[in-house]
Every structure is written in structure tokens, then in C-alpha cells.
């Protein structure tokens, strides 16, 4: 699987050095950051020029404020900045870039519902539809909107990886809030979905990919009962989930938590043989990271 | 009006200007929308998802005399989430029948495209829902609208404070967009039908999972602004063979209705589908707003060209917050 997926990924690189979500699509920061990590993880196993061109794409596409856009087609900063930080954080010659991005990330805050929205809810006697602490602040998908689990997890992981370069007080404040937010959004029996545990009193179910990403971001809290519970839930969910994305993120996560993952690796390979992960760049990259030696990039 | 209703109305009065309710003519480009005096909607009986569904759809589509020869048709089902015990999504058999129908009616290409609102894992959603096998068997392209290339699109109405949205390139490359929702109630919007289904075309990679930027801007206003601004002709096929009542769109209960609703005026299709659920379309805020300029909502303006509406009407339960949807106007 490794050789075939590396070839597939390399062949899908766009002439500008980046990757789109699938072959033929415009290069974007998420796909390029994950592909760069995947190909970089193969000691001598990938074409150096592919990696160099990927690095160049990330460097060329950083915004002046330190953030990264989603792609060349969208203006302004995006949540993908966290993945670009992770991809560049191991490259000491890119320190200025990822530190600038880290400082930008520390300034970004998800929004809270305004006074008007709260007043209307109170006046109309509406039941609170969702059960979450709206005062906790993490990171949002798009500026000036609510905080959600996946972008908060990416930013926590990115910031924790480069913490020694960041102002300590701000780092601790933001990380503490972000972690509180993730624990607050945990599903009733462990694990995470996009960020709602219940709607109108009915519980919602967790997703394996988001659970794995959240657990990776919280790996330095592995002894907490929520982490232990969620690891068990993740393993249970994986019994009924076959996809490159879910298995890839889960393998990275379970490896970081010291769990036996050999059976899952086999399933990942079987899945690749069947679907080629629909040719999705991020799933191909995660597959390479999972079966290769890529989990070190996600270690805090 | 009791105190509770009065306060609700007062709160709505505070908020409605934000959604667009006061200066109606300032909310859309008047010259850009010329509403037909009447619309046609077909309700077709379909008891199950098996044999005969393709023929039913072909019969229904033919009623609208669509020019499909050589055209690229994009089918946009509802694949927001998956629950093995639930009936959340447009049934894959309905999508399969639509692929077959449009191909046999002359379409050059049929594409299935969706931007799931909650999950990012397409491979899981397609596999678990059964759509993966359909797509493979019929050799059609599936496009993840969440990560498609995007084009900045100016909004043609202003029921939110959004002025532009990034929309998927796939819409610009198509000749016809077919909204294929499930017949469902919805805990934020009242009902989710062919207009609300268009939330799925808004790319998650830009606006997040869930499509929170739209909720933040106002769910009712966003539905109207998206539908007023899509750059492509539309058609609707509502999967009402088995619908969902109660706490939809995810956690409601199955409701067998045995119908498919089709039409080229999505407002009229949704108004009819709402009536099939014994829901008053004028009480659904986004439908009421859309009925002002995008299409016909009035019972008298909609010609039923299939089955009798009353014969197939069922009482779909709604959550307490939407009890007012049951009050006929």
C-alpha cells in the first residue's frame, strides 16, 4: 500500500507544488500541509523535488499576517493555518514563518452569541437547544463565528508543538480555554463529533475521525478519565467504520496513546486496495503517515 | 394572543429586520425576479424504493418538458449524516433512479454532488449509506462540494448581512441542479426540503462543519439568500417515500408517506411538500420570504398535476418550538 499510495500522492501534485482535495482541483493549504508531512516522513522514500516544491507552495502562500488562506481562490486567513504550522514546525529553517503564524493563532478567538441573541432567547422562553458552555473560547472554522472541536484541536496541537517560541502567559490561557472547550463538547459516553453532544435533550453520537483528532490534541492529558473513555469509544467505533480518513487519524492517535494498532493497519491497507480512499489527498496522506513513521509529527 | 405568544412575536419583531422582513423590495433585485403567475407541482405515488421507481421518476420529469439533451445534470441529495437506525438521507435507490432517469432522458452527464453538513468523511458516508455502490455501478462522478474549487458569488438578495458567498465550481459547470431532499421536519428551520437542502452546496472547507457561518448569519435568511443567488436552473425531486417527523433532521422518527414530489419551482415544491406534512408553508419563515419573489407558495397558485394532495396528506409531528407551523393561514 505504501508504495502505491506514495506514487498516487506524488502524481497528484499540481504544477504549482501544492495539492487539491483530489487530483485536478486547485491547491489548498490543508491538502498540501498533510501531503508534505506524509512525503517528508519517508526517509529517502520520496522524491526530494516533490517535497521541496510542496514546501515552496506553503511558503509562497503564507499571508503577510502569518496566517494561511484555504487556497489561492479564497482571500484572508483560515483554519488551515494550524495544519501549515504543524507541517513546517519540524523545519528549523522555517522558524520565523511558523512562529509568526503561531502568534497570529493566539490572537484568533471564536465568537460567542451576542447580547441580542441571548435576550431574544430569554424573552421568547425558548429552551436552550444545545447543551454546551457558550462562554468557552476556542477556534472557529471561519473568522467571527463560533468555536468548534476540529479547528480548536488543530490549533491546540499546532500551538503545543511550537510552545517554546510563544509568549508563555498567552499560550497557557488560550490552551487552557481550548482544552476546556473540547472537554465540554465531549459526547455523553465519550468521543467527539463536530461539537454538539445533544440537541433538544437527545444525545448525538461521536465520529471516529474527530475523536482521534481531539485525542491527539489532548495527548498530554492522556491520564484524564475523559481521554481514557474516549480511547475506548474510538476503538469501539472503529469496529464499524472503514474509511481512509477515520482509520488514518485513528492509527496516528492510537499509536500516540501506546495502543496496539496492527489489526487496524491491515484494515487500512484492505480499504486502500478497495477504494483508494476515493483519491482524497488528505486520506492518502494520513494513510502514509499511519503505516509509515509519520505519527512523530503529531507528538507534542 | 397569550403572554408567551406576545413575547415571541415581539422578539421576532426585533430580529426580523435582520432576516429581512420590513422593506421587502429592498431585499432583492426586483428586476431579476419575475415570478410566474402559477407553478406546476407533481405528487406521484411511490410506495417503496424498489422496482418501478425509475419509471415513476421518468414519468414525473417528463411532465415538466425539461430540455435535457446533451446537458450536464448535477443531483444534490441530502447526505448530511449517517445513522444506521435512522432515515436521515435521501435513499440511494431514489438517487439511482434519478441517475437512470436523467440519462435515459438524454442528459450528457449525470453527476452526484453533496457537501455533507456534519461529517467530513465522504468515504464513510458514501459507503455506509449505500451510495458508493450506486455511484460505482452507474459510473457517475461524485463531487464533494465541501472541498470543490470555489468561485466568489455575489448574493442577489439580502435577508442576511452576507453579501457574497463562495460557491462550488461544479455548479457553474452544470446545466441543471436537481435538489433531492428527504421529506423532513427540522429543529432549526421547521422543515427541510429542496430549498434548505441547498445549504449542502456551501463549501464546508470555507464555512465549516456544521455550516456555522450560515447559522451565525441567520438560518432562514441564509436559505433565501443562497437560493436567490445560485447560478444555474433548478429542479426538485423530494424523497417522500419515507420521511422524518419530530426532531429532524437527524433524530426524528420515520414517517412513511409514499410519495415523490417534483417540480421546477422549488418554492412551490416545498410549499406542496409542507402541505403534505400538514404544515402551513406561510408559517415557515424562509418559505414565506421566498414566496415573495422566488416562487409560488399559495395553494391557488400551484397546479397539482399528479396525485391529489389531500389524499396523501399526513400529520407530521413537529417539536414544541414549531407548534405554530400547524396553524393554517
Question: How would you sum up this structure, described in words?
Answer:
The complex is a heterodimer of chains A (300) and B (329). Chain A is an all-alpha fold. Chain A has a single domain (2-298), classed as Glycosyltransferase. Chain A has helices at 2-11, 29-40, 48-61, 81-88, 95-107, 115-123, 149-161, 168-184, 208-217, 225-238, 244-256, 262-275, 281-291; strands at 198-199, 202-203. A two-stranded antiparallel ribbon of chain A has the order 1-2. In chain A, β1 (198-199) and β2 (202-203) form a beta hairpin. In chain A, α4 (81-88) packs antiparallel against α5 (95-107), α9 (208-217) runs antiparallel to α10 and α9 runs parallel beside α11. The longest helix of chain A is centred in the middle third of the chain and has 17 residues, at 168-184. The radius of gyration of chain A is 19 Å and the shape is globular. Chain B is of the alpha/beta class. Chain B has a single domain (36-326), classed as Rossmann fold, CATH 3.40.50.11440. Chain B contains twelve helices and twelve strands. In chain B, the strands form two sheets. In chain B, strands 1, 2, 3, 4, 7, 8, 9, 10, 11 and 12 form a ten-stranded mixed β-sheet that branches. A two-stranded antiparallel sheet of chain B has the order 5-6. Chain B is globular, with a radius of gyration of 18 Å. Mean pLDDT of chain B is 91; it is low at 1-23. The chains are: A mainly alpha (300), B alpha/beta (329). Chains A and B meet through α6 and α11 of A and α1, α4, β5, α7 and α8 of B.
The average pLDDT value of chain B, as a whole number, equals 91
Q: Helix/strand-derived class of chain A?
A: mainly alpha
Count of individual domains of chain B: 1
CATH topology of chain A: Glycosyltransferase
Calculate the terminal CA-CA distance of chain B, rounded to whole Å.
16 Å
- Largest sheet properties of chain A: 2 strands, antiparallel
Uncertain spans of chain A, ≥5 residues at pLDDT below 50?
Answer: none
Q: Whole-Å distance between the termini of chain A?
A: 28 Å
CATH secondary-structure class of chain A: Mainly Alpha
Radius of gyration of chain B: 18 Å
Count of runs of 4 or more consecutive helical residues of chain B:
12
Query: CATH fold name of chain B, please?
Result: Rossmann fold
How much helical structure, as a percent, in the residues of chain B? 25-40%
Most strands sheet of chain B = 10 strands, mixed
Q: Kindly estimate the percentage of residues of chain B that lie in beta strands according to DSSP.
A: 15-25%
Q: Largest interface: which pair?
A: A-B, 52 and 46 residues
According to CATH, the homologous superfamily of chain B is LarA, N-terminal domain
Amino acid at each position: 500500500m505504501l508504495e502505491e499510495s506514495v506514487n498516487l500522492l506524488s502524481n497528484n501534485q499540481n504544477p504549482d507544488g501544492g495539492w487539491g482535495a483530489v487530483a485536478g482541483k486547485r491547491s489548498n493549504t490543508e491538502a498540501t500541509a498533510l501531503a508534505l508531512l506524509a512525503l517528508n516522513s519517508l526517509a529517502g522514500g520520496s522524491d526530494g523535488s516533490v517535497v521541496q516544491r510542496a514546501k515552496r507552495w506553503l511558503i509562497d502562500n503564507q499571508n503577510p499576517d502569518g496566517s494561511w488562506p484555504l487556497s489561492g481562490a479564497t482571500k484572508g486567513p483560515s483554519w488551515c493555518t494550524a495544519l501549515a504550522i504543524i507541517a513546517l514546525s519540524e523545519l528549523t529553517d522555517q522558524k520565523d514563518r511558523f512562529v509568526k503564524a503561531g502568534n497570529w493563532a493566539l490572537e484568533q478567538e471564536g465568537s460567542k452569541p451576542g447580547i441580542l441573541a441571548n435576550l431574544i432567547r430569554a424573552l421568547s422562553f425558548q429552551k436552550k437547544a444545545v447543551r454546551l458552555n457558550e462562554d468557552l473560547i476556542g477556534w472557529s472554522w471561519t473568522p467571527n463565528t463560533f468555536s468548534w472541536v476540529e479547528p480548536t484541536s488543530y490549533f491546540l496541537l499546532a500551538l503545543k508543538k511550537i510552545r517554546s517560541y510563544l509568549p508563555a502567559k498567552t499560550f497557557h490561557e488560550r490552551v487552557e480555554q481550548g482544552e476546556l472547550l473540547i472537554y465540554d463538547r465531549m459526547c455523553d459516553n465519550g468521543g467527539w463529533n463536530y461539537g454538539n453532544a445533544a440537541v433538544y435533550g437527545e444525545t448525538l453520537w461521536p465520529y471516529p475521525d474527530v475523536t482521534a483528532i481531539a485525542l491527539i490534541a489532548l495527548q498530554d492529558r492522556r491520564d484524564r478519565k475523559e481521554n481514557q473513555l474516549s480511547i475506548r469509544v474510538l476503538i469501539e467505533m472503529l469496529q464499524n467504520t472503514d474509511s481512509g480518513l477515520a482509520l488514518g487519524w485513528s492509527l496516528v492517535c492510537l499509536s500516540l496513546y501506546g495502543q496496539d494498532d496492527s489489526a487496524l493497519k491491515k484494515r487500512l491497507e484492505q480499504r486502500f486496495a478497495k477504494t483508494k480512499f476515493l483519491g482524497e489527498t488528505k486520506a492518502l496522506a494520513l494513510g502514509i503517515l499511519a503505516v509509515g513513521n509519520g505519527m512523530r509529527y503529531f507528538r507534542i | 394572543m397569550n403572554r408567551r405568544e406576545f413575547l415571541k412575536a415581539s422578539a421576532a419583531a426585533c430580529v426580523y429586520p435582520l432576516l429581512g422582513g420590513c422593506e421587502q423590495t429592498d431585499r432583492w433585485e426586483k428586476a431579476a425576479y419575475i415570478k410566474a403567475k402559477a407553478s406546476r407541482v407533481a405528487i406521484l405515488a411511490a410506495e417503496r424504493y424498489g422496482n418501478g421507481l425509475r419509471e415513476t421518476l421518468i414519468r414525473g420529469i417528463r411532465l415538466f418538458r425539461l430540455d435535457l439533451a446533451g446537458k450536464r445534470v448535477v443531483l444534490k441529495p441530502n447526505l448530511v449524516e449517517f445513522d444506521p437506525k435512522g432515515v436521515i438521507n435521501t435513499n440511494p435507490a431514489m438517487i439511482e433512479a434519478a441517475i437512470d432517469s436523467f440519462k435515459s432522458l438524454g442528459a450528457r452527464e449525470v453527476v452526484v454532488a453533496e457537501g455533507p453538513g456534519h461529517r467530513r468523511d465522504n468515504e464513510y458516508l458514501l459507503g455506509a449509506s449505500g451510495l458508493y455502490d450506486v455511484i460505482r455501478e452507474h459510473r457517475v462522478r461524485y463531487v464533494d462540494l465541501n472541498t470543490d474549487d470555489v468561485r466568489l458569488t455575489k448574493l442577489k438578495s439580502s435577508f442576511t448581512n452576507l453579501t457574497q458567498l463562495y460557491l462550488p465550481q461544479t455548479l457553474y459547470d452544470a446545466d441543471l441542479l436537481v435538489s433531492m431532499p428527504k421529506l423532513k421536519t427540522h429543529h432549526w428551520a421547521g422543515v427541510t426540503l429542496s430549498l434548505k437542502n441547498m445549504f449542502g452546496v456551501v463549501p464546508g472547507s470555507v464555512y465549516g462543519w456544521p455550516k456555522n457561518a450560515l447559522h451565525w448569519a441567520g438560518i432562514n435568511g441564509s436559505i433565501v439568500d443562497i437560493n436567490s443567488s445560485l447560478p444555474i436552473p433548478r429542479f426538485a425531486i423530494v424523497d417522500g417515500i419515507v420521511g422524518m417527523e419530530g426532531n429532524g433532521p437527524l433524530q426524528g422518527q420515520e414517517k412513511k408517506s409514499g410519495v415523490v414530489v417534483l417540480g421546477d419551482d422549488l418554492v412551490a415544491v416545498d410549499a406542496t411538500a409542507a402541505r403534505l406534512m400538514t404544515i402551513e408553508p406561510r408559517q415557515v419563515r424562509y418559505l414565506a420570504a421566498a414566496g415573495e419573489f422566488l416562487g409560488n407558495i399559495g395553494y391557488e397558485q400551484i397546479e397539482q398535476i399528479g396525485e391529489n394532495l389531500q389524499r396523501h396528506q399526513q400529520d407530521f409531528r413537529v417539536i414544541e418550538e414549531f407548534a405554530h407551523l400547524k396553524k393554517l393561514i
